[in-house]
């Protein structure tokens, strides 16, 4: 089976000359479909940069990245927008909900522009928020807001879900709940899930763990057995 | 130390919001510009007029007579309150230019020893004593007709033909703005004044050893009206009794009306701009303070006082206002000079006493700083209220919950998510949304009202010369002639129709209100000269009574059914009491129409007329003009198309410039408001917009969401602005209407469309500029941090 993502010598440099920052150096890897992949590494090691490039938010300085057989590095801005629109879901540390829309409306924001989306109510039920459909972000806790963000990300049935520190702003119980939801999405919808995190323990729930250091992929670990997110300690 | 860092932040912040700061500065600049321009214009006009009137000793009291012996001047000088007086000779003659139409000319004796109603020689010299054929000619007439020094003029006075040599050109304050007799607009080529040696003037007008007009300057001790009353009484036996003071003199009157209008716009225009600027600063500073809550909390935690921090933001507002005030002052001076030039030309001032007091500059600066401070102060209450701890907490998402109840909830259901975002954003900040709507509406209204006034002016011309007065030319006579002359003229070559008119100069009276004017007698079946109803249908003149124009009705506060008193000021003095039968919708002048037969009966004269209106086949032919020149009783012929064209040319030049200025003002105002609103929305919601881009919304879609809010507000502003503009136009029309002319406004679609177009293009321009900012919006950095 074709991998979900493939990269070849992917590099990203900010600035020039001696002041240049090499955020990514020659990253070559493959991510199989329908896996939960956790990206670990110290701060500034290039995790977000990598995620942003394969998520179609940023462009590399050199190297190639493929989504299936589509070369992301050769796409126009318009095509990248279309790629994000049809195939990708994002979850960020700071939720990024529209404060002027209710939970259901935040999800509908995405379903209105997708082919074959799931019902907003169903997406919110998947994240356990069926009781809070008509609440505004201001009326919800951080964990609840993050689950709305996940519902919004999965409602269009994306092929991949990118999560950059989804539990970063949450306490451990709430964080576990969020990871549980991500795991369910992977299991029930077959979505490839990429999670960037600082909580090393999260690695236990992954099919595959990518270790970044200094802009380079240092190590790839394939877990023989995966832990249930509910059992993760951190 | 802290201060310098704060200042560095101030300049960095100003640089960051430079486009927005510029837009606000531009609005401030407009207010100051209008203030400085109007002040410069009114001051310069006022000072120039005063200087001109004073230097050339324009009389303060005028008393026209039939004839009084020179010895009477002793008694005139003895009237208490008379500072200086002069008896001059005044009459009419006719200049017969070869081939052209005969032009009626004022003939005046040159100013006497007291120098009253002095003249300013612009070229040549005054006549040499004893040379009765040498004359000074009004320079604007000479220029328009191509008459040079040394040329000979053929002039008919009292039926006698004279050859006069032009030895000098002059101007006089008495003739700053003078329509030719029987015409409404001043046109250079149709209004002539000939100054002659006193003896020569007396000789041609049969006034040897006499005079027929008293001019007087008065002392401060006695009111002019009192002096005039004495003079009227003294001169009644000599055909006087209908004198007037300087304010009522045509030329002085027109200038004063113009100045009144300028003074009024100077009072009401600038505050609009400054209010808008204050509002824009308020919204912008509020937005910046909200975005910088953490920094403010941090500074407070470091020990800065609320006042110090508020001062920092206040400085920002003041600097924006200051820059605007400087720019506005410079623009105001430039524009003021250029418009002053136009006025000078229009009013024939020979020189210009440019007057620019520091007052308007200081005032403009002070008012813009105060407006800025006010706008900022309201926004800065937050700074004082913020506690360090509160400011350091991550901001809670803005609360939209209240929008869920009632009407709004129902309305928003209809829309998709972006539509809801737009609507909720607008309703969450109702004051700000209302302010934006009001500001855009104000810009639209100003422009629209101005355009309506100008098109109202065109309408006035069209109605007056298309419906009320349908003649092609008017032949006027020096003294009343027999009505039979009408038939004679009707048979001249090329004349299709001829109609008699009788003008009788009178003093209208209703209680204590008086107005100098004339009764207009028209034939029963008048076709060329008509009184009109508002729907432009002619009013049939009643056998008894008068039909008065709206202008006269307003001045005299008369209603149909009441009685109008008219004191005849010429020939046999009588007082008529005439029932007002109807009010006509006459736009130029303030006539009172009567049937010719009942008018002549009322003044106790046989059927006599003073002018004949004619309709001709094509333009009046040289043969026709020749025939008219051959008739000595003809005082002049005014050809309508010529005088209209000449007047429209000057009027359009002025109107064109003002249209452009107001169009530009409306554009900058709308742009300033719309761009600011869009920019603030963009800054506040950059994060949201970046999120939308991440979610797969295209640039176009995100632009639409952002533009949607502002477009909706502008769409709301359009009807409000149109309504406000219409109200304003009617108000201006009322304020500016007087008995000289009435400004009529109609719900004129082209004016509305033009004004709307300006607002729409300003909106489009700001959306395009915003689109560029959106293109540069970096998704990643917008997502990295909260605000
Ligand atoms: N816009 C930018 N300009 C310059 N350097 C940048 C920019 N964005 C990222 N970098 C640099 O690139 C490197 C990688 O950043 P990246 O955000 O990918 O790190 P990360 O692994 O996600 O770190 P963290 O765990 O702290 O989020 C860092 O050294 C960072 O300073
Ligand atoms: Mg990161």
From TrEMBL, chain A:
**What single Pfam family name could you report for this chain, choosing any that match?**
ABC_tran
Per UniProt, which keywords does this protein have?
Answer: ATP-binding, Nucleotide-binding, Transport
Q: Which residues form the ABC transporter domain?
A: 5-234
Top-level division of the source organism's lineage = Bacteria
Q: Which InterPro entries match?
A: AAA+_ATPase, ABC_transporter-like_ATP-bd, ABC_transporter-like_CS, MacB-like_ATP-bd, P-loop_NTPase
What the entry lists under CDD domains is as follows: ABC_MJ0796_LolCDE_FtsE
Presence of the UniProt keyword ATP-binding in the record: yes
Q: Which family does it belong to?
A: Belongs to the ABC transporter superfamily.
Could you identify this protein by its name?
A: ABC transporter
From TrEMBL, chain B:
TM region(s), chain numbering: 21-41, 268-289, 310-335, 361-384, 434-457, 660-682, 703-729, 749-770
Primary localization: membrane
User: How is the protein disposed in the membrane?
Assistant: Multi-pass membrane protein
**Keywords in alphabetical order:** Cell membrane, Membrane, Transmembrane, Transmembrane helix
- The ABC3 transporter permease C-terminal domain covers 272-388, 660-773
- InterPro entries to which the protein is assigned, alphabetical: ABC3_permease_C (IPR003838), Lipoprotein-release_system (IPR051447)
Name-wise, this protein is ABC3 transporter permease C-terminal domain-containing protein
Top-level taxon of the source organism: Bacteria
Similarity section? Belongs to the ABC-4 integral membrane protein family. LolC/E subfamily.
Cellular compartments annotated:
Cell membrane
Pfam families, per the entry: FtsX (PF02687)
């Amino acid at each position: 089976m074709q991998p979900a993502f493939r990269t070849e010598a992917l590099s990203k440099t900010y600035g020039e000359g001696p002041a240049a920052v090499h955020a990514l150096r020659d990253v070559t890897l493959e991510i199989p479909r329908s896996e939960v992949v956790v990206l670990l590494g110290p701060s500034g090691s290039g995790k977000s940069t990598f995620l942003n490039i394969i998520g179609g938010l940023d462009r590399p300085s050199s190297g190639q990245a493929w989504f299936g057989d589509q070369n992301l590095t050769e796409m126009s801005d318009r095509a990248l927008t279309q790629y994000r629109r049809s195939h990708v879901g994002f979850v960020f540390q700071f939720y990024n909900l529209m404060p002027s829309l209710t939970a259901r409306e935040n999800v509908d924001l995405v379903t209105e522009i997708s082919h074959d989306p799931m019902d907003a109510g169903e997406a919110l039920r998947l994240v356990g928020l069926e009781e809070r459909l008509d609440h505004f972000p201001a009326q919800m806790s951080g964990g609840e807001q993050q689950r709305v963000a996940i519902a919004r990300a999965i409602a269009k049935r994306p092929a991949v879900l990118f999560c950059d520190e989804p539990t970063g702003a949450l306490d451990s119980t709430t964080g576990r709940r969020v990871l549980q939801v991500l795991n369910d999405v992977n299991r029930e919808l077959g979505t490839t899930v990429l999670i960037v995190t600082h909580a090393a323990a999260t690695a236990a729930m992954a099919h595959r763990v990518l270790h970044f250091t200094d802009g380079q992929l240092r190590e790839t670990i394939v877990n023989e057995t995966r832990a249930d997110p509910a059992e993760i300690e951190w | 130390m802290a201060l310098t860092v704060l200042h560095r932040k101030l300049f960095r912040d100003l640089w960051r919001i430079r486009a927005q700061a510029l837009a606000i500065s531009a609005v401030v600049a407009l207010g100051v510009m209008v203030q400085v321009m109007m002040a410069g214009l009114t001051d310069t006009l006022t000072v120039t007029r005063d200087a001109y009137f004073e230097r050339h000793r324009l009389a303060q009291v005028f008393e026209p007579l039939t004839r009084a012996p020179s010895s009477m001047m002793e008694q005139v000088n003895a009237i208490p309150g008379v500072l200086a007086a002069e008896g001059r000779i005044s009459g009419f003659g006719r200049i017969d230019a070869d081939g052209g139409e005969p032009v009626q000319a004022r003939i005046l004796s040159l100013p006497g020893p007291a120098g009253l109603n002095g003249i300013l020689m612009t070229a040549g010299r005054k006549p040499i004593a004893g040379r009765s054929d040498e004359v000074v000619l009004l320079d604007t007439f000479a220029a328009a007709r191509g008459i040079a020094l040394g040329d000979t003029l053929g002039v008919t006075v009292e039926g006698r033909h004279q050859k006069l040599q032009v030895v000098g050109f002059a101007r006089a304050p008495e003739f700053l703005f003078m329509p030719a007799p029987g015409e409404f607009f001043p046109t250079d080529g149709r209004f002539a004044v000939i100054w002659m040696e006193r003896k020569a003037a007396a000789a041609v007008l049969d006034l040897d050893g006499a005079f027929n007009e008293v001019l007087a300057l008065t002392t401060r001790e006695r009111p002019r009206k009192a002096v005039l009353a004495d003079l009227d009484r003294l001169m009644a036996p000599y055909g006087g009794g209908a004198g007037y003071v300087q304010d009522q003199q045509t030329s002085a009157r027109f200038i004063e009306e113009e100045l009144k209008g300028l003074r009024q716009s100077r009072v009401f225009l600038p505050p609009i701009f400054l209010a808008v600027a204050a509002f824009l600063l308020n919204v912008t500073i509020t937005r910046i303070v909200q975005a910088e809550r953490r920094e403010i909390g941090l500074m407070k935690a470091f020990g800065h006082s609320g006042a110090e921090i508020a001062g920092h933001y206040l400085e920002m507002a003041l600097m924006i206002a200051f820059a605007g005030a400087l720019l506005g002052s410079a623009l105001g001076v430039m524009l003021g000079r250029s418009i002053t030039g136009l006025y000078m030309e229009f009013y024939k001032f020979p020189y210009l006493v440019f007057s620019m007091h520091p007052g308007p500059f200081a005032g403009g600066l002070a008012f813009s700083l105060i407006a800025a401070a006010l706008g900022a102060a309201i926004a800065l209450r937050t700074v004082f209220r913020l506690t360090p701890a509160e400011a350091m907490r991550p901001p809670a998402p803005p609360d939209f919950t209240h929008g869920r109840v009632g009407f709004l909830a129902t309305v928003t259901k209809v829309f998709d998510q972006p539509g809801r975002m737009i609507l909720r954003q607008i309703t969450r900040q109702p004051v700000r949304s209302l302010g934006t709507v009001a500001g855009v509406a104000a810009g639209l209204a100003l422009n629209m009202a101005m355009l309506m006034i100008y098109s109202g002016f065109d309408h006035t011309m069209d109605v007056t010369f298309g419906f009320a007065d349908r003649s092609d030319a008017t032949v006027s006579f020096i003294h009343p002639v027999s009505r039979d002359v009408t038939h004679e003229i009707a048979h001249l070559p090329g004349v299709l129709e001829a109609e008699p008119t009788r003008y009788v100069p009178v003093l209208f009276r209703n209680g204590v209100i008086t107005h100098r004017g004339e009764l207009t007698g028209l034939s029963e079946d008048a076709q060329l000269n008509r009184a009109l109803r508002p729907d432009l249908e002619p009013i049939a003149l009643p056998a008894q009574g008068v039909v008065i124009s709206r202008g006269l009705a307003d001045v005299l506060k008369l209603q149909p059914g009441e009685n109008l008193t008219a004191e005849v000021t010429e020939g046999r003095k009588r007082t008529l009491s005439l029932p007002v039968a109807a009010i006509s919708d006459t736009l130029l002048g303030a006539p009172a129409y009567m049937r010719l037969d009942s008018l002549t009966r009322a003044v106790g004269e046989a059927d006599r007329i003073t002018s004949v209106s004619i309709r001709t086949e094509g333009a009046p032919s040289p043969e026709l003009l020749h025939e008219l020149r051959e008739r000595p009783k003809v005082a002049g012929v005014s050809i309508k198309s010529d005088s209209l064209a000449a007047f429209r040319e000057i009027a359009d030049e002025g109107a064109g410039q003002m249209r452009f200025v107001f169009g530009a003002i409306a554009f900058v105002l709308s742009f300033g408001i719309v761009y600011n609103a869009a920019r603030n929305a963009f800054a506040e919601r950059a994060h949201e917009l970046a999120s939308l881009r991440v979610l797969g919304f295209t640039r176009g879609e995100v632009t639409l969401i952002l533009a949607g809010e502002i477009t909706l507000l502008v769409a709301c502003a359009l009807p409000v602005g149109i309504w406000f503009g219409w109200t304003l136009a009617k108000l201006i029309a009322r304020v500016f209407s007087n008995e000289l002319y009435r400004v009529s406004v109609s719900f004129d679609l082209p004016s509305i469309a033009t004004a709307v177009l300006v607002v729409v293009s300003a909106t489009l321009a700001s959306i395009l500029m915003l689109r560029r900012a959106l293109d540069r919006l970096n998704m990643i950095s917008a997502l990295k941090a909260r605000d």
